């Protein structure tokens, strides 16, 4: 299951949505945003039982967090779709 999604410019979170308001994913997301290299990239970070997937293009970062059991295909399909839908506005 996807638990959180965000769009950031560099390390600044522009918008974020979580499905579980009892958990604070902002701290983990901010930590991961600070570790993303300056070049365009796509990668998955593991933290505890969760995976943080991101696509970075021209300093715009599309990120989502999922349960480890979901794997990588569904989250990156979601991120590609999100990038296609809102990326033109931001890039």
UniProtKB/TrEMBL annotation:
Pfam families xref list: Longin (PF13774)
Iron found in the keyword field: no
Keyword Cell wall biogenesis/degradation in annotation: no
Any one GO cellular component localisation term in the record: endomembrane system
Entry-linked PROSITE patterns: LONGIN
Top-level taxon in the UniProt lineage: Eukaryota
SUPFAM superfamilies: SNARE-like
InterPro entries named in the record: Longin-like_dom_sf (IPR011012), Longin_dom (IPR010908), Synaptobrevin-like_transport (IPR051097)
SMART domains according to UniProt: Longin (SM01270)
Keywords from the named record: Membrane
Membrane topology field: Single-pass type IV membrane protein
Transmembrane segments: none
Annotated compartments: Endomembrane system
Chief location of this protein within or outside the cell: membrane
Domain Longin: 6-85
Family from the record: Belongs to the synaptobrevin family.
Name listed for the protein in its UniProt record: Longin domain-containing protein
